[in-house]
């Protein structure tokens, strides 16, 4: 009789152990998922993107690098009649003609008197649309200083603050912090596709 009771208890124990196994597996899986990710995985998830930080007037602006072809010093800029006043004119760079747009005038940003009258080399960012092979979406954006390319973390992105110019508000979509400095990130797709800024330089 006792042997039968012991056998019954053993069978009941084994049955309970089998029933508990899926729960144990789920608990173990939950514990694994709760473990901290590796630094590489964390960095990849937190990356927001790379930006080229520049200065236009007294303000720092950030251009997503996927819209930037290069930064160049322009030579002679020839006036182009009948275009919006945000354009300086046209310039040739390695046998290619670019419409040249002044970032400070475009975004309504002020320059100091010294900067406005200073005959400094013209730094231009050559920007292109989502399709870099489509030359009709390219132009040269004149800036007052170039600080470099920086990676931006998602935690360093915030909303556009109040108090910026009406023109800049039209194209800025985020405030980002890069290399310890803050700059407004520009919506380059919106800027490049703006029909009001299109000019025919053919």
UniProtKB/TrEMBL annotation:
Highest taxon of the lineage: Bacteria
Domain CheW-like residue range list: 48-197
A biological process from GO: signal transduction
InterPro entries assigned to the protein according to its UniProt record, in alphabetical order: CheW, CheW-like_dom_sf, CheW-lke_dom
A GO-annotated cellular component: cytosol
Entry protein name: CheW-like domain-containing protein
